[in-house]
């Protein structure tokens, strides 16, 4: 074959390697998944420095400080309110920063699946994940791969740090522990609402049940727990075949009566939102009585403009067990005593 500077015979053409795409080229550099994430984050910010770039500088500053007692005294006097102090005549850096540095040094010599983190680092990572969210933690993890554990490790620690959340189970005792631990009054407001969720089935290892089907409600409006046990493959297949997938995630929330206090999720279950106001009323009566028995006072039940919930709220107003209805309220709620 001749032309355009090529001089190949038929055998050379047949034996030539076929490149499926440009990624098969030997000169094309391939990146791991973590490297691609790093390149993606820094693609639009060329020349951006990372936190790890300052570690050598920090080490040099530490060595300089340790060899200059006059500078140590001057900085200690100016930064007494910070976590820099004298201990046994030696200069000590912040405990958290030192722990992160030591963890980074140790893990830099290990493979990814062999990296280890002590409890202090895990607790700090949990705090970052809860307060800052997944996006912030992923950004810090990309820039600090060695001192901070992976997202999967943090999520695993988060599950083991708290009691398992089982669908349909009321957490009355946990609510009381939450109020006492945070020095909150034993008085709450109860509200409930639903939101659209992705329709799918999954398995909950804590309850050994299939999660995703519409959980049935008892006569008192309370979810029937363990309605879809996963004790055998045949039973799981039956749930997948006959169970109606839930379209709404329904949450029952307790709000402590203190300014700035966080709410507490009392119950969470999947539903198709096909229940009536009578079931809502009975469910609220059940919650009221259960909380009363453990010393928690329910001040009110409230929700949005859902007709089922509004009707249940209207019925509660005339039940002296829950409220002492006042005549002047009738004009506001279009009700008559």
Distance, first to last CA: 101 Å
Number of helices: 12
Largest β sheet strand count, sense and barrel closure: 4 strands, mixed
Strand content: 5-15%
- Approximately how much helix is present in the residues? 40-55%
Task: Supply the helix-strand structural class.
Answer: alpha+beta
What integer is the average pLDDT? 77
Query: Would you report the number of β strands?
Result: 10
The best one-word shape is extended
Low-confidence stretches: 1-10, 16-25, 81-92
Record the strand order, biggest sheet: 9-8-5-10
Provide the succession of SSEs: EEHHHHEEHHHHEEEHEEHEHH
What is the alpha-carbon Rg in Å?
A: 31 Å
Brief summary of the model shown:
By secondary structure, this protein is an alpha+beta fold. It contains twelve helices and ten strands.
Give a structural overview.
With 337 residues, this protein is of the alpha+beta class. 41% of the residues lie in helices and 15% in strands. It has twelve helices and ten strands. It has helices at residues 10-15, 33-41, 55-66, 69-78, 95-108, 119-143, 151-161, 172-181, 233-242, 277-293, 307-317, 330-333, and strands spanning 2-3, 6-7, 85-87, 90-92, 187-196, 202-204, 209-211, 248-256, 264-271, 297-302. Strands 9-8-5-10 form a four-stranded mixed sheet, covered by helices on one side. α6 packs antiparallel against α7 (151-161) and α10 (277-293) crosses α11. The longest helix has 25 residues, at 119-143. The protein is extended, with a radius of gyration of 31 Å. The termini are far apart. Mean pLDDT is 77; it is low at 1-10, 16-25 and 81-92. This is Sugar fermentation stimulation protein-like protein. It comes from Frankliniella fusca.
């Amino acid at each position: 074959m001749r032309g355009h500077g090529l001089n190949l015979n038929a055998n050379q053409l047949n034996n030539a390697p076929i490149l499926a795409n440009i990624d098969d080229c030997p000169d094309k550099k391939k990146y791991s998944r973590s490297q691609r994430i790093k390149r993606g984050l820094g693609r639009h910010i060329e020349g951006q420095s990372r936190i790890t770039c300052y570690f050598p500088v920090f080490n040099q500053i530490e060595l300089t400080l340790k060899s200059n007692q006059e500078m140590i005294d001057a900085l200690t006097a100016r930064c007494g309110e910070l976590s820099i102090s004298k201990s046994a005549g030696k200069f000590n850096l912040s405990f958290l920063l030192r722990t992160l540095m030591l963890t980074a040094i140790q893990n830099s010599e290990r493979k990814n699946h062999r990296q280890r983190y002590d409890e202090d680092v895990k607790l700090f990572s949990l705090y970052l994940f809860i307060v800052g969210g997944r996006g912030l933690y992923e950004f810090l993890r990309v820039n600090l791969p060695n001192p901070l554990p992976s997202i999967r490790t943090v999520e695993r620690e988060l599950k083991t740090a708290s009691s398992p959340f089982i669908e349909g189970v009321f957490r009355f005792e946990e609510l009381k522990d939450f109020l006492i631990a945070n020095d909150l009054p034993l008085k709450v407001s109860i509200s409930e609402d639903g939101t659209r969720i992705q329709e799918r089935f999954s398995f909950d290892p804590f309850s050994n049940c299939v999660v995703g089907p519409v959980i049935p409600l008892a006569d008192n409006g309370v979810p029937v727990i363990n309605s879809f046990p996963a004790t055998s493959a045949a039973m799981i297949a039956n749930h997948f075949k006959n169970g109606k997938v839930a379209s709404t995630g329904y949450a029952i929330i307790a709000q402590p009566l203190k300014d700035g206090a966080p709410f507490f999720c009392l119950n969470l279950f999947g539903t198709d939102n096909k229940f009536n106001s009578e079931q809502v009323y009975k469910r609220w009566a059940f919650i009221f009585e259960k909380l009363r028995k453990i010393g928690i006072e329910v001040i009110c039940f409230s929700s949005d403009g859902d007709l089922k919930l509004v009707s249940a709220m209207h019925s509660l107003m005339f039940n002296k067990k829950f409220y002492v209805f006042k005549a002047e309220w009738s004009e506001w709620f279009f009700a008559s005593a």
